[in-house]
Amino acid sequence: MIELYKQAQSRIPATISLPSHWLKSYEDFVTKNASSVTQIESALRSLTYIVPGRFRESELASETLHTSTLLISLYHTSLLRRHFPSPSPPPPQTRYTAFYSARSRLYSNSAILLQTIQYTELLCEMFFKRRGGDKARWRLVVVLEVIKAICRTVMFWVTGKRMVAEGPGAVRPNVPEPSYTGAEEELGGDHVGAAADSNEEMDHLHEERSKEWPMPRTKMTLPVLPSITSESITEYLASRVVSADDIKAAHHLVRKI
Hints:
By secondary structure, the chain is mostly helical. It has nine helices and two strands. Strands 1-2 form a two-stranded antiparallel sheet. Strand 1 (213-214) and strand 2 (221-222) form a beta hairpin. Helix 2 packs antiparallel against helix 3 (58-83) and helix 4 packs across helix 5 (105-158). The chain is elongated and about 95 Å long.
């Protein structure tokens, strides 16, 4: 009996560490296959337009799928924000919420709880209405609204009496596209690609030389000047414009009340 107890006690740490190991593996999979994960999320969202009316209680199934997709997308966005840089320049709302999320854990937890309730409140209302009728549904609505009011109040005081800007994880960072050089080398595609690139370079070089102007006295050639239009100049200058929000500190983007 004592030996069985010791064996069970020795297996407990390994059993407890399994969920964390699985979670770590899943996080690595998401960060390494971010583009594929985004495509899967889009496919799941498209299913919400197909499911309604297909079978009994399809509205509840469709809303469950939609809510699950939103929660999974929120979790994936939080993972990608840890490993990849934010869009440059990030939107003002993202800068503001990211600043206070990094500064205050209380603000971060309140914002995540608020966004989670906003994603799941409709599904919870539908479920409670089916199980307990309108009375149970309205009780749930009151509880959720009280929790949301508490979260907004906490965020309001943490930011120094500034208006609440919701959605801390709405914008995903820039994710680099995966490279397929290894697969191309195995299939021999690198040689074909190199030959095609060299042919294109030679054709481009001959085309540029044909446009050059030969000088009669020195027999030298002048290169063709690049075509510059007013539209291209305007677009270039507009891309370099810095607005007032771009140079403001993150906590000054929203005024105090």
